[in-house]
User: Fold Protein-L-isoaspartate O-methyltransferase from Thioalkalivibrio denitrificans.
Amino acid sequence: MTSQRTRDRLVRQLEEAGIRDHRVLEVIGSTPRHLFVDEAMSSRAYENTALPIGYGQTISQPYVVARMTEALLEGGPRSRVLEVGTGSGYQAAVLAPLVERVYSVERILGLQRRAREVLSALRIRNVSLKHSDGNWGWPEQGPFDGIVLTAAPREVPEALLAQLAVGGVLVAPVGADGEVQTLMRITRRADAYEREYLEAVSFVPMLPGTSR
Ligand code: SAH
Assistant:
């Protein structure tokens, strides 16, 4: 159920769904997603669906992880990438081999701790985690040439736009909780932020503050 064959089938599904970046497909095929979900769920880990990870949160659907990663990498290599919403740590693990360093913030301490354990068991060493409210980004580590939000704000917080380097891209689901959200890509140009609408998505809401 967690075999390479099962993973390969997921990769084929993502290809059929339109994921073209081979680096992304390769990383999805080699990342053990079953380690990022509860053991009771591990038999479903290579289905193309979101799954519960506790605390009312979910690990994103593999297609969405692939699509966001692809959208982030398009247009140039990304060295410093900020993720808002570590959750299980899966998206961070997918980004890790594709960029120089991942900085990921999570507002729920329990999730952040679990993600840290899994990432360290997998010997992924270029991911830095912090327990904090991602509405403020991680200013000490910015600017970033990539930012990815895995929870949906109603509007992209100003603080995050400010931490984007010129030439950098921010990929985020934007919209109200319970409504259809839009996956957006915002590119920072020298004199403006350029917005693109990629597709409709459904994410948990981005919430303010932190919790245990
Ligand atoms: N990237 C994760 C997806 C987890 S779901 C994965 O691969 O598993 C989204 C996560 O965003 C949740 O864990 C939620 O707690 C977190 N989140 C929501 N609002 C946040 C905020 N303001 N700051 C940081 N994390 C936030």
